[in-house]
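[09:14] KT: can someone run the structure on this one? pasting the chain below
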Amino acid sequence: MSSDGFTTCLWFDGQAEEAAAHYVSIFKNSRLGRVTHVPESAPLPAGAVLAVEFVANGQRFLALNGGPMYKFTEAISFQIFCADQDEVDHYWSKLTEGGGEPGPCGWLKDRFGVSWQVIPTRLMEMISDPDPQRASRANAAMMSMGKLDIAALEKAYAGE
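[09:31] RB: done, structure tokens below
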């Protein structure tokens, strides 16, 4: 087995280069890599961008222009754990801009249809609290939100 992790391949319909540049602009520890173009012998338009290698938040990705036959669904999502409300607000704003769709419980789809979960790290502590009432209150508050509000989650958790 490979000892240096995985590369996630994301399938786009002609938007690979735009998506890679967008993700690299949002996350720290990110960079664009090699761009591969369609060769003359392929059944696609020669010279068009076929794939873009990139790193976002230290994770390796390949954005592939594979065509219209596959679409993203919520069955696969990326979780972004955030230290504070400023981080939640930053990622929520950047990932929904330009046509993204806010969803429930901290979920959203970006303008390319990729699903993300923007989650305060503290939420995981709250909903896994051994006190079932505290955990239940935090979970109920989360279920009523789109973008997660840490202060409101803390109040619910505390029973206020």
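[09:33] KT: thanks! The chain has five helices and eight strands.
[09:34] RB: yep, looked fine to me
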